Structures are given as C-alpha cells and as structure tokens.
Amino acid sequence: MSDLDRLLSSALREANRLLLERRKQQSQRKRKTDAKPAVSPSHPSATIADLPAHLGWGSAAATAVLRRAHTRLNKRGITPTAVPQPIPIETAVSTSTTLPSTVKLYPDIGLGILRQEQAASGRIWLLARHLDTSGSGKLRIADLREAITDHSAPLHICGWRQLRNLLRQGDGVFWHRDKTHLWLHSAVKTASALEVSRLNGRPVHLPISALTGSIGDIRAHLYAAFHSGRVKEGGGAEAAPKPIARETLTKLSGIGAVTQRSYEQKTKISVRHNYAIGERASKENQEARAWKHGGAAFIVQDTHGQHGRKGEEYVAWQLPNSYSSTHQQRPLGRQKRINRQLKDLVMKGMPGNVDQTSERQMPKLYYANGKAATTNSYWFRKSGGNGRYALWHTMTT
Question: Would you say residue 1 lies in a domain?
Fold first, then answer.
C-alpha cells in the first residue's frame, strides 16, 4: 500500500468516526425530548416558568406579577402544579366595557329640555353621561364622535356635521368644550340653565333605546318620565299619582294636549279618568256646578244606592286624569343636595331660575283618604272599569 492509500484510509476512518459520534449525540437528544411531556397552559403539571413570555391576559404587568409570585414559591420549596386558564382578551374587553342599558334622568330636567326646545342637544348630553362610565364629567370629542356618528356603532344617531352643530347649540347649557374635550355640566348647572328651580318626584331609568330613536321618541320619553317619577313608594291609593290637568302639563312641558295624547300612546301610558260625586241634584246645585265646571258637570243617578238613597240623582263632574308609569324609578341619591344647591342659586338672584310651574308650588287638592282631606278638596273613593276610571268625593263648605 502506498503512502497516498494509507493517508486516504486514515482520513476515511476519521470521517466515519465523527459521523457515528454525531449520530449518537442526535439519538440521545431525541430520546430526552421524547421522554419530556409537552407543556401547555391546560396541562395539570404546567407551571408559570414553562409558559411562553405572554400569558394571554393582555397585560405585561400581570405577567410580571405572576412570574415574581412563582419565584417566591420556588424559594420556599413550593412547586406550583397548575395554573389558571388564561382569559381570552376578547372576553376581558367586552366585560370591562359593557355599558348599562339605561341612563339616569331627573324628570324635571326632562321637562326643562322640552320647554326650552333642547331635545336634540339634551339627547347628546344624556348619551355623553351614558358613555362617561368613570363619572369624571370629561369626555374626548373624538370618542363621542366615534360612538355617535359611526354608522356601525350601536349609538349612531347623526353625522359629524350635525354633531358639531349640536355641540355648539348645547354649549353653556349642557357642557362647555374646547377643541378636543367636552366637560359635561352637572345636574345642578343643567337644571339652572334650563330654568328648573326644584327637582320633584323621583329620578327614573331612561332606556338607551329611546335615545337612539327618532327625535319624536326622545321627546315622548322625556314627557313620559314626568309621569313615571310621580308614582310614590308603596302601594294602593297613597302611591297612585294624583290627578293633573292637561293645562298644567302644558305649562310644565310646553306640549299641547293633542301632542300629549300622541306621546302617551307612543310610550304606552294608560290614562285613568276621574269623576267627582257632589251634592244631590237640584236646579240651584246644577247651575252652581255648571258655572264652576262648565261642560264637565253632569247628572248621575245612583242606581245601586252606593252613594246615598237608591235611585237618587247627584251632580257630578269630570276631574283631571291620572297617568300610569312607564319607566322604572331610581333611588333619590343626591336629589336633596341638588335641591339645596338650586335653592341657593335662586336666593342669589341668578338669572334663569324663575320657574313658576313647579308642581310643588301648586295647592294640594287630592288626598288618598277622607281623614287627610281639607275643605274644597277631594278624597279617593274607588276605581272601576278595570282601572279605566275612578270616583272621588269632595269636601266642600
């Protein structure tokens, strides 16, 4: 064998040796890999250290906290054997940003919005308060624009041009603003700007679906909220709303009788007609009642003897109607404090606080029972016709 052949044979043997060595190392690594089970967040023996850098909660800070806790447990000799399943980020976001389906409304502020013909801007104010989940009173105009003007958004009601006009229209009444932010006025400032001197009744839940409908829908619900706030706690005649004349409703809301009936039908408010039973019928009594009540006076015969002697005739007349509730009431909350602040504004003589149509300023005429009734007032007797009408007694001199 020549020197060249011996050199080639030596190089070939060395190459074969290296090849065999590498194959052996690869085989050993493969056996180690097969022996170690694959670790996943759902595996019962998974630990924080075995997981990837991101745990799936969408928060690097939360991941760091969990890893530090894992390190402390290891130092104490405690080995975690399982980890909780990570919450999908879509679920976390949808849970944290879920908005309520209603917004709080003080009925007298709703009446002020109607009287001042500010329903369009007032709707923006209510929607902005609905979007202000933190209660800070500060809202980015860009966020409001995205929520209200985007056609795919659930709260879409108008375009950007109309929103700009409404923001200018409501400036100083419902909010003040700069180029980027909107600072919402509180209930006190808004009531004062709308010439509301006192909040009566109870606040109500105004559905967001009403705010995203037509402008006629929001006006109807603002009107209906007044009736919903007049129902008192408890039950029976004491809790039932007292009769109120349509002329009074017109003074309070600025809405005529025909439109009132339309809004009552739209919001499904039931109307109960009330009648008063007076003295026995005579020519003098009929003339006196006709002079006082006009066409509302008439003669009724007591065929069942419930009011007096059977078959006796009495003078009767129609009273103002009673109205049912269509919105759920909310707790009074800060209403007493708001009324004290409004009273202070009135005492200081600030302009725009001269509301003379508050229901609290009107004399009380209707009582739930005869013991509480006073002269020239009415007390409830009974209802009939499945609640479609009610009879009242009168206390006269």
Answer: no
pLDDT digits (tens, 9 = 90+) for 211-223: 999 999 999 999 9
Q: How many separate helices (H) and strands (E) can be counted in the chain?
A: 14, 11
Helix, coil or strand: residue 85: coil
The answer to whether residue 218 is domain-embedded is: yes
Residue 351 backbone zone (phi > 0: left; psi -120 to 50: alpha; other: beta) = beta
My answer on whether 308 and 370 are in the same domain is yes
- Give the CA count within 13 Å in the CB-facing half-sphere of 162: 11
Let me know whether 121 and 136 are in one domain. yes
Establish if 286 belongs to a structural domain.
yes
CA distances 315 to 291, 299, 301, 373, 394, Å, are 13, 5, 9, 20, 11
Size of the chain in residues: 397
For residue 358, what are its two tokens? Answer: 């508050």
Judge whether 191 and 184 are in contact, CB under 8 Å.
no
Q: Is residue 21 part of a domain?
A: no
160 and 230 together in one domain: yes
Enter the DSSP assignment of 326.
-
Residue 347, burial from CB neighbour count under 10 angstroms (0-12, 13-18, 19+): exposed
Burial class of residue 84, CB neighbours in 10 A (0-12, 13-18, 19+): exposed
CA distance to 264, 295, 315, 353, 378, per residue, from 287 (Å): 35, 11, 10, 43, 20
Total structural domains in the chain? 3
Is a pLDDT exceeding 90 seen at residue 338? yes
Residues 260 and 111 in one domain: yes
Tokens linked to 259: 């439109």
One domain, residues 83 and 136: no
Predicted local confidence at residue 205, as pLDDT: 95
Q: Greater confidence, 385 or 109?
A: 109
Radius of gyration of the chain from Cα atoms? Answer: 38
CA atoms within 13 A on the CB side of 304: 1
Domain interval for residue 288:
271-322+363-397
For 271-283, what is the mean pLDDT? 86
